[in-house]
Structure formats: structure tokens, C-alpha cells
Design a protein that fits this description.
heterotetramer; A: 294 residues; Rossmann fold; 17% helix; B: 312 residues; TIM Barrel; 9 helices; binds flavin-adenine dinucleotide; binds flavin mononucleotide; binds FE2/S2 (inorganic) cluster
């Protein structure tokens, strides 16, 4: 751990990814989302919570070239489960898959959530479909004997995700919605602020602004936090350099780090949320871009 | 990647350096090869063409750095990379250990940058040759891109050829954004280029309909992918027609063995696969196998026989 | 086409000529308009930009004349058409009868051809203006394309402006296959062009993997469709940036209202829809309606307000 | 009729085309082909035998921009039936459509087969899936009181098409295959040569070489023939000029005529089969291309 940081960078996953053509064995609309189940044994066997898969989209005649990254929700019995929100053309195509269809998928990708400090009570915070990415983690933590509190938040009730799964696994689950249509009205931080003091680690997945709020709250209380970020990705495997954001490394220096291979899980106190999408002079190599100390 | 054995001799050469496969990565589309290891046998492909390296480490541009476009994408990475020291210390030894050939892409903003990089790479184990990425703004000419001016382009190539290891072939990488690509090709060959890589991306722009501003931080970006394949093939065709004895590393939208075949028939003796890797990380091995099968079906005993065949 | 009423004022102008819609056909992609009648209200669109006409009737090139490419196509029609007499006798009266505006694209192989065509079109009813297709080989300059040389391009435009009806605006149609499109734009504007149409197709090539020869009879062809949209947008952006007061008719891969919006935001005051018509013969009316709705959603009271907005 | 020609150019259809999004109501593999049935009432009501429809292919994310032209086999009860052979990516996509899927289709397109001379016995000749395009015509001719003889040919038995439908409608049906796997071994001309002398008109649809052979045989015997040609099309509606071939007009001059709007049905004696894909000096406007009388 670098001086002043509560987290160490997440280590790489145990197994390298594979690329497979797999069958969709389940497709179920869940409120605003579609839950897809894939018969992808090799991916299921390798996956660790926090990792994601990347789908080729649009079929054989597709004009969409880039893969779509989707967090792994759970794995079991050779089946990988993901929850997809129809955002643009690629994710919409994914939500239209039906059992029997085949998809080309690469995974598991990215670095998993690091293990919690021994005996720590863990707080899991999911925003929108981000909650799906925490279900596998909740199960793993419970199995390892950790107490687990979970918060799921969303703009409205239909955009909540995986609440039932989390309820089955976690010791306590709090729900918030911006419009009050389910659970408490307000942002997840409402519940996070209450639960945080009793927790020894925080894991979060969801929109950037939520991640920032949760990470800041945790850091302020001296609690290590790990966030799974979502940056626009072209390849998902670390070769294109499109998915970068400023992250402080173990040497204390900030680099534009690839969220696909150096993330998506980063120490919450290491992501420079305010500087995402900009280039500040203290980023390694910014001087060569003409951005120098003012 | 498992190379299916076909009767076709797939060996080719980059300048004077023999390679076992005509299929290479494209600069900037496979980083330094490492991340492809789970999907591709790096020693079996022609070479890993590395992300263009400059003298100093570079952060690259702020995000957003890409926009998907119909059958393609726009990128504006800004040559993020570790600089030549990082490359020499970390990436090149890693590739050499695995028996993978590196074709090192170098970039700079003045002629001397290129020459210094070439000098630093002399005799480095595993470096099969250099690709000179002249699609960079020339700071000494109001930021005009070297590749858009035959004189500036040949200045770079001449300086690199003079500074580089004589055993390392140098390929000049041409931009399609010119009125007359043949004249640029001729100029850099006259200046000492052993081969030509073509094409680099086309300059493009996408506007975000929500923000109503250009999507990319860098405003314009480079268009790549199958969308540009006909333009790339036209460039290869024209240059091979004019300079039939100059080796060409063809690229631009190659996604299948039949796409690669088109480049070979048009005059390329090797091909780079760029954006397609984002779609299919196993693309290189697959394309090698598909190309071998396609050549066999068409009665070619070797890749070399097919090079430029469409002109005959 | 039923134009959905929106609050947005969609009127615009081609040079000095007002038109009710910013959506036009693209030359060569809707013939002379007739065949679109079952799908589109020809009087409601901005104008029918007619297939480029030359002095004499032309058979065009032998087939194959097209190849499909990823998100685009390559064509090599060779300007098949009835010649100026056929146009004046048959097509233009037919359009005029229906209240449709014709924006007549003219083409030639020497400067005088263009001038003669412009003279023949003086005062012809229903002719809203001329589009000067300078992407043709110049027989007096070893077949170099007029649009690739600022001098040749401005010679054509000056001659057309001198010969044409002063009430008819003339738009020069630029090729993207140049190192510096802004310099060509500047030259033709200085020579008297009232506006700029951009872009024409990119030069491309496809090789047939079965015959192992170029797919098209003409070897190379013009690449069009969504594949080239980022290149077209970049050209419009660059030229509007340099010449903000020159009207631009934007085109290249427009398929939806949001695509058209990108061109408007980049600086086009009207757009042409070409290849997309092959995919969707009702595209013009749909794109007009989608563009109107998109402008309304974004709070624009008129199309004019949005022109060039991305530069602000 | 121009002096020396047995046919007049086919007149335009009675109704203009429409563009509709329609539902697939039937999809049935038939040997090497797939028969699709579309609930396309407006097209069905307007269609005349010999016309075709043009499909957008690949769905919403498609990189295939151009429509695919497919002959109308039959219409009835608001349903249009077509038979599709999987040639490349677009037609393969079509053969994968299932009932309930929707497709965007334009039609009916092109000029229909002209009516036969009063009382004439008609010979219908179909090659491969070309036979499908003759089924509607066979029904129409029978209803109008004409005697109908049909020949269906193909490379092999599995590439024969619509034989059952033609057998139900025509007075006699002959089948030929190149390999003898069904009917007589040989080309359709085998049967055509025998049937032709008794016929007053010939209608043919199939590969170009077959059309040429049938047209030549008919013309040699002084029988008018109409052929539905198949040229590579980009738009199908007459605006792109890609689908041209040299055809002699009613003024006796040869023009490069659009097979989509001036065809696909042409007088068999008016198509200059040997000159397809070339440009000869006597084509109107060839001089402007630099091709002049030798
Ligand atoms: C690690 C990770 C995990 C994710 N998990 C989920 C999940 O569990 N469920 C879910 O519904 N979505 C998830 N997303 C977001 C999902 O990847 C995007 O919504 C999707 O890629 C958008 O594609 P599109 O075609 O619908 O939209 P478009 O906007 O048309 O996409 C255009 C391009 O931008 C890229 N892109 C756009 N938005 C994103 C984004 N947010 N993240 C990455 N790439 C993007 C696409 O890959 C594509 O290349 C995740 C993203 C990341 C990075
Ligand atoms: C009037 C007419 C009627 C037809 N009827 C039938 C039919 O009933 N059943 C059937 O299976 N096929 C029919 N065809 C042929 C069918 O259109 C082609 O097989 C199909 O377009 C090929 O598309 P693809 O994507 O599979 O192949 P590709 O070769 O990838 O097509 C590439 C491009 O070329 C065009 N193209 C290629 N071949 C042809 C062709 N033969 N005709 C027209 N365009 C072509 C396509 O439209 C596309 O734009 C007909 C063609 C015409 C012109
Ligand atoms: C994300 C990305 C980064 C690239 N970076 C470089 C680079 O650093 N140096 C270079 O010479 N070309 C670079 N290119 C261009 C490619 O090497 C290649 O010339 C181009 O993309 C066309 O090939 P493709 O269509 O197969 O991708 C890059 C392309 C992409 C898509
Ligand atoms: C089949 C075809 C024919 C064309 N013919 C002409 C022409 O005669 N004159 C001309 O100026 N442009 C011609 N063009 C170019 C278009 O007008 C347009 O500039 C180009 O296709 C880009 O727009 P798009 O992508 O919307 O098609 C043609 C394009 C196509 C596809
Ligand atoms: S998505 Fe390509 S490097 Fe991360
Ligand atoms: S297919 Fe376009 S004119 Fe015939």
C-alpha cells in the first residue's frame, strides 16, 4: 500500500480469458433489463466476481464491429448469467437474444474484486444494473464467512436490479430510488452513510458519480473501497487504449490506466474521478502531450 | 492459434527478413502483443507490429478516444505508450523470450526523433524491422502530417535508413489522405524505404448528437475497420501497379482470409490485421488459416505466387 | 412522404434560392426523381439533384458496375444518361410539372463542356441551380480529376459561373481524395462558386475472390454509404471552419435524421441523401421528419440556427 | 413490334410499388431452398406474374446496405410467397427468417410478363429457383384459358423448384437435371426443343445461359419469348443504374437498359445475351464512352 492510500491495486485474475461461441440457455426480462444465461462452461469455471465478458453483437451481417462489455452477475453449473440494459444498438441486440441463439463471447475479462480484510464486514453498493455485478461477490463473501450488507439504488423501481438475489445472500439489504418508487427516496449514499461505519471494506458498481460518492464516503471514514468502473471500451482485452482513466498506481504516480485490464476494479481512493476525461499535468507522459506543470 | 497444415507455403519476407506467416498485427491495435497471448500464438504469426513508440513516455489524449462508426471506428488515442526506454526494458525482451518477432513502429514530431529511435533499436534482439509511422504532425511544418508531403516523408525515411541497423528493413507507413499516394510512395522508396505499409487510418469526425459537439477529445480521429477496406485496396493496387518490386504490408479493414487474399492479389506480400482484433481477438490465427485454405483452393502452391496476381 | 408538422422552421436556401426542406437527393442516386414518386413527395423535398449530365447521351460503363462493401458500396456507372438534350426535353419538364425543384448536376471532360451545359440550362423552368461535378477526369490534363487540382477546379467553376444564369446558384462538388480539401474549397469559392457540395465518393477497389481480378469493369470505383460518413463530416467540418459563410450541401452516408443533424451541426445548410435511398426508397421524407423532430427536441426553432452549431 | 422482332417490350405494371414492414407467416425449407410466406396484402394485391420484391437484409445493425431482389412466386389471400436460395450473406439471412419475424420489403417491382397471343399454348421454362417465378404465371394463364406446358430444370434434384406447384397447374410438366438425379438427364433445352413447336409463346426464368438457349430456340422457330433476367441490383427501383444489360428497344436501337424497371422481363429476341457485360459500339451513347464503330 502506498503511503496515504487505503487500497492496493487489484491483482490480475487467476486465469486468462477464452473466446467461445456459446448458446443462450435463458433470456428473461427483469423490469427494465434482460437477464441472459449462457452455457459457457470454460468462462464460468474461470470467472471471479468483478470480472466481465465481451460480446460480439449484431450477428454475421453486423456493421457493429466493437464488442460490448457486460459484467458477470453469477456463474454456476457451467452457466454464466448477465443482466443487460438496452442502451444503444449493440446492447439492444443482446437483449433480443432468445434461448437457442448463439453468441460469441470473450471472458472472463478484467481484474476481480480483491479479498476483504480478514473478518471484515463488507458493504456492497450497486447502482442500476451495477447491482448485478455484486451478486457473485455477495455469495463468495458469505461463503468465506464475511458479514455482508448490500445497498441497491436506481433512478426508479423498474431500474433496480438483482434485489431479490442480493436479499437471499446478504445479511441486510437496503434499497433506494431517486423518485421513491421503491425503498427509500434518495441516492444510495443515504443508506451507505448509515452502514459504512460498521464495515471494513466497500465494493461498488454503478454509474461514475455514484462510485465517486461511495468511494469518497468510504475514504473519509478510513474504509478501503473497490469500485468497478464503466468506461467506453472498444476491445475489452487491453489492446486498444480507449478505456483509460486517471488512476494512482502503487508508486503514487497517476497514469491513464486501461479499465479493461488494469480494472474494471480499482481502489476507490486511487481513481481520480474529477479528472476523468481530462489530462492533468501530473499524469505520467502528459508532458509529452504538451501538458506541463502550470 | 493452431495453424492448420495446408500444402501452401505461407512464408514471406519483410524486406530481407523471412517470416513464417504473412499475417501480422497492426500498429496500435495489439499493444505490444502481450494481451493477445491467450488467443494467438505470437511466435507463429509474421510479426507483432508494436504500438508506435516515441522517445518519451506519453499519456495519450484525454477520453473519449473512440467512436464506433458503421463497419468501423474512429480513434484518437494520441500514441499513449511507455517511450523507447520502456519498450527496450519491458516489451521487447518479453516478445524476444517467446520467439516472437517485433516489427517496431516508431513515431516522432521532427526528423531527428525518428532517427534517434532507429539508432536506439539497432541490434536489439527480436526486432525484425521498423515501421516508420509518418502519419504524425511535423512540428517544424505547422503541424502538417509528414505522410502528406513527399518531401517531408522522404526526409524522415532517409534519416531513419541512415541511422537504423542495416539488417533491419524499414517500412514507411503511408496515409491515404493524399491526392496522389503513388508520388509519396515513390519518394519514400527513393529515400531508402525497404517496403511500404499501407494504409494508416483516414481522417474522420463524428458529432455526438446529444452534446452536439465532436465526439472525440481530439475533434478528428482516424477511421479504421472494414469500412475503409476498398480505399486501402485501391492504394495497394495503385502503388503495386507503379512500383511492382516494392514489398507492401497491406492493411485496412482485413477481417477474414478472403479479405487478406484481396490484399495479396492486389500486391501485398504481407498483411496487418488491426481493428478486426477488437472484434475477434483470435483473428490473426484464423485469418492465417483461412488465407492458406483460400490459396490452396485456388491452386497456389505458395503465398508468393499470389502476390500481385490480380494485375496479371 | 407526409411531412409531420413540427414547430421547427425547416426552410433553407441553396445559395439565393429558398427551398422548403434541407433534404435533397444526391446526384446519381435518384436518377431524375421519377422512380422515387411512389415513395417521396418530390415537391416537398429541398430539390432533386439530378444524375450528372454531359453534353451527349452516354451509355455508361459495362457491367459489373457495383460491389457491395461493409456499410457501403462501390460504383462505377460511368455517368450513364440521356445527355443535355434528353434532360431538357424529358426529365426537366416532368419535374417542373410536378412543382419539384431540380438542382442539375453537370459534368464534362473539358472546361468548355461545363460552360456549354450551364449556358443550355439558363432560364430553364424548375432549375433551382447547378451542381458542378468536378470529380471527372480532365482530358486536357492526362485524365487528372478536376477536383484534385485547385487550379483546374476553379477554371471549371469560373467558366460555369460566367456562362450560367445569374439567378441559378452554382455549387461545386468536391472530392475527398485530396490532401487539403480546404484549399480546393477556397479556390472554387474565389472562382465564383455560390456553395459547395461535399463529398463525392472516395476512390476504392474490390477484388473478386473468385475471378481474382478487380470486381468492377472500371477497376476502381466510388465508395459511398455510411462507411464514409466520418470522412464526409470531417470535410464539412474543416471547410465550414475555414469558410464559415459559404453554404454547404453536405452528403456522404446519411441514413437517418440524426446523421443529417451531424452534418448540419458541422456546417451544412442542406444535405443530400444518396446510397441510403437504395436501402430505403422512402428515406428522404423520413430523414426530413426525423431531422425536424431532432431539432425540436434540442430546442432549435429553425434549421438555420443549428447550422454550424458544433463549432460554437 | 419492330421489324424483325417477335416481341414488343414488356409494358409497365398496372400499379406502382409500395414499401412495407411485413410479417413472415411461413418459412419452409424445400430441398435446397427456403420458401417464405409474407403477410403483405398491399403487395399481393398489386403483384403481377414476373414481378419481384426487394428486401432490406441483416436487421437493424446490418452492414449490408443494398436490397436483395427476389421473384414473387405466388400471391393469394394477402400473402406473398417467395423462394430463396442461400447464395451470399444477404440471401442466407433471408433463409434464416422465421414466422413472426418482420422484414422490410418493397414491391411489386419490375415489369410483368406480357399476355400471350390469343389462344396460344404457352411454354414456361424455369431453371433452378427460377421456376418459382412461373407458378403465378401458370395459374394466371390457365385461368385465362390457355394451355400451359412447363419445364423445370436444375443441376440436381435438390435444386429443382416448384415442380409440385407447376404440376398442379400446368397441362404437362417436364423435368430435367444435369446429373439425371430427377427427370431426364440434360439441360432444359432437351424438353424445350420437343415442346416448342406446339407453343405460341415462351416464358422463361433462370440462369442467363439457360435464358439465352431458350430464347434462341424460340426465336429460331418464330415463337415470341419473354425472359425474366437476373442482373446484380443495388436498388431494385430504377435509380442506381447498376443492373443494366444491352437490350434492343422498339426503335431497333440497343440501350443499356435497367433490368429492374425496364425488365426484369424482356423480349427474348431483344436481349443481346452475348454482349452482356461488354460495351459494343452500336449501343446508344457508347461513342461518348470512347467506343466507336471499328
Ligand atoms: C466493465 C463493464 C461492465 C458493464 N456491465 C454492464 C452490465 O452488466 N449490463 C449492461 O447493461 N451494461 C453493462 N456495461 C455497459 C455496456 O457495455 C454498454 O451499455 C454497451 O456497450 C453499450 O453498447 P450499445 O451498442 O448499446 O451503445 P453504443 O453507445 O452505441 O455503443 C457504442 C460503442 O461504445 C461502447 N460503449 C458505449 N457505452 C459504453 C459503456 N458504458 N461501457 C463500455 N463501452 C461502452 C460500446 O462498446 C460500443 O463500442 C458495462 C460496461 C463495462 C465497461
Ligand atoms: C429480378 C430478380 C429476381 C430474383 N429472384 C430470386 C429468387 O426468387 N430466389 C433467389 O434465391 N434469388 C433470386 N434472385 C437472386 C438474388 O437477388 C441474389 O441471390 C441475392 O441478391 C444475392 O445476395 P447475397 O447477399 O446473398 O449475395 P452477395 O453476392 O453478397 O450480394 C452482393 C450484392 O450483389 C447483389 N447481387 C448479387 N447477386 C445478385 C443477383 N443474382 N441478382 C441481383 N442482385 C445480386 C445483391 O443484391 C447485393 O447487393 C433474383 C434476382 C433478381 C435480379
Ligand atoms: C485504436 C487504434 C490505434 C492505432 N494506433 C496506431 C499507431 O500507434 N501507429 C500506427 O502506425 N497506426 C495506428 N493505427 C492504425 C492501424 O495500424 C491501421 O493502419 C489502421 O487501423 C487500418 O487497419 P485496420 O482497419 O485493420 O484497423 C491505429 C488504429 C487503431 C484503430
Ligand atoms: C450509384 C451512384 C452513382 C453516383 N453518381 C453520381 C453522379 O452522377 N454525379 C455525382 O456528382 N455524384 C454521383 N454519386 C455520388 C453521390 O452523389 C454522393 O456524393 C456520394 O454517393 C456520397 O453520398 P452517399 O453516401 O449518401 O451516397 C453517385 C453515387 C452512387 C452510389
Ligand atoms: S477496451 Fe481496449 S484497452 Fe481497454
Ligand atoms: S437496381 Fe438500381 S437501377 Fe436497377
Amino acid at each position: 500500500m502506498t503511503a496515504g492510500y487505503l487500497t492496493t491495486p487489484a491483482p490480475v485474475a487467476d486465469s486468462p480469458p477464452v473466446q467461445r461461441t456459446v448458446e443462450v440457455v435463458g433470456a428473461r426480462p427483469v423490469d427494465a433489463y434482460v437477464e441472459l444465461r449462457l452455457a459457457a462452461r470454460e468462462i464460468a469455471e474461470r470467472a471471479q466476481p468483478g470480472q466481465f465478458v465481451a460480446f460480439a453483437v449484431g450477428g454475421e451481417t453486423s456493421g457493429l464491429l466493437l464488442r460490448r462489455s457486460i459484467a458477470i452477475s453469477t456463474v454456476g453449473d457451467g452457466v454464466v448469467t448477465v443482466v443487460v440494459s438496452a442502451a444503444g444498438p449493440g446492447s439492444t441486440w443482446l437483449t433480443q437474444r432468445r434461448p437457442g441463439d448463439v453468441v460469441d463471447v470473450v471472458g472472463p475479462l478484467g481484474r476481480p474484486f480483491p479479498a476483504p480484510p480478514a473478518g471484515a464486514r463488507a458493504l456492497l453498493v450497486g447502482g442500476g444494473y451495477g447491482a448485478a455485478a455484486l451478486v457473485g461477490l455477495a455469495g463468495q463473501l458469505k461463503a468465506a464467512g464475511h458479514e455482508v450488507a448490500a445497498v441497491a439504488g436506481a433512478a426508479s423501481a423498474d431500474r433496480l436490479c438483482s434485489v431479490q438475489e442480493l436479499t437471499e445472500l446478504a445479511d441486510t439489504v437496503a434499497v433506494t430510488t431517486d423518485d421513491g418508487s421503491s425503498g427509500r427516496r434518495g441516492l444510495v449514499t443515504l443508506a451507505v452513510d448509515e452502514l459504512l461505519p460498521d464495515c471494513g471494506v466497500v465494493y461498488a458498481c454503478g454509474p461514475m458519480r455514484m462510485l465517486q460518492a461511495v468511494a469518497d464516503a468510504a475514504t473519509a471514514l478510513g474504509v478501503p473501497s473497490y469500485v468497478a468502473v464503466e468506461e467506453s471500451m472498444a476491445c475489452g482485452i487491453g489492446v486498444c487504449m480507449t478505456c483509460v482513466l486517471p488512476v494512482v498506481g502503487s508508486d503514487g504516480l497517476t497514469r491513464l490506466s486501461r479499465s479493461c485490464t488494469e480494472g474494471p476494479v480499482f481502489g476507490g481512493d486511487r481513481v481520480r474521478f474529477d479528472d476523468v476525461g481530462t489530462l492533468t499535468w501530473d499524469v505520467v507522459g502528459a508532458d509529452a502531450m504538451g501538458v506541463t506543470r502550470p | 492459434m493452431t495453424l492448420v497444415e495446408t500444402a501452401v507455403d505461407m512464408s514471406t519476407a519483410l524486406g530481407s527478413v523471412p517470416v513464417p506467416s504473412p499475417v501480422l498485427t497492426a500498429s496500435g491495435c495489439s499493444a505490444f502483443g502481450r494481451e493477445l497471448e491467450p488467443f494467438t500464438d505470437l511466435a507463429a504469426i509474421g510479426a507483432v507490429v508494436t504500438k508506435s513508440v516515441q522517445l518519451r513516455p506519453r499519456s495519450g489524449r484525454p477520453t473519449p478516444r473512440m467512436a464506433e462508426t458503421p463497419s468501423g471506428m474512429l480513434n484518437s488515442i494520441g500514441l499513449q505508450g511507455p517511450g523507447i526506454d520502456g519498450l527496450l526494458d519491458g516489451e521487447l525482451p518479453w516478445l524476444a523470450e517467446r520467439g516472437a518477432r517485433a516489427f517496431v513502429s516508431i513515431a516522432g514530431v521532427r526528423v531527428e526523433d525518428f532517427a534517434e529511435l532507429a539508432a536506439r533499436l539497432r541490434g536489439v534482439p527480436g526486432v525484425a524491422g521498423l515501421e516508420v509511422n509518418i502519419s504524425c504532425p511535423n512540428v517544424e511544418s505547422r503541424g502538417e502530417v509528414f505522410a502528406c508531403d513527399p518531401v517531408a516523408a522522404s526526409d524522415v525515411v532517409a534519416a531513419v535508413r541512415a541511422a537504423a541497423d542495416p539488417a533491419q528493413p524499414i517500412y514507411a507507413k503511408l496515409s491515404p489522405d493524399v491526392t496522389d499516394i503513388v508520388s509519396v510512395a515513390r519518394a519514400v522508396v527513393d529515400a531508402g524505404a525497404d517496403g511500404l505499409s499501407m494504409i494508416n487510418t483516414l481522417l474522420g469526425l463524428v458529432i455526438d448528437p446529444d452534446t452536439m459537439k465532436p465526439m472525440l477529445g481530439g475533434i478528428t480521429g482516424g477511421l479504421s475497420g472494414p469500412a475503409i477496406r476498398p480505399v486501402a485496396l485501391r492504394c495497394v493496387w495503385q502503388v503495386h501497379q507503379a512500383l511492382p518490386h516494392v514489398p507492401i504490408l497491406g492493411m485496412g479493414g482485413i477481417r477474414t482470409g478472403l479479405d487478406a487474399l484481396q490484399f495479396v492479389l492486389a500486391g501485398a506480400s504481407a498483411v496487418s490485421v488491426g481493428t478486426a482484433v477488437f472484434n475477434d481477438p483470435s483473428a490473426l490465427g484464423r485469418i492465417h488459416a483461412e488465407l492458406a485454405a483460400a490459396l490452396e483452393t485456388r491452386g497456389f502452391a505458395s503465398l508468393r505466387e499470389a502476390v500481385g496476381y490480380a494485375h496479371r
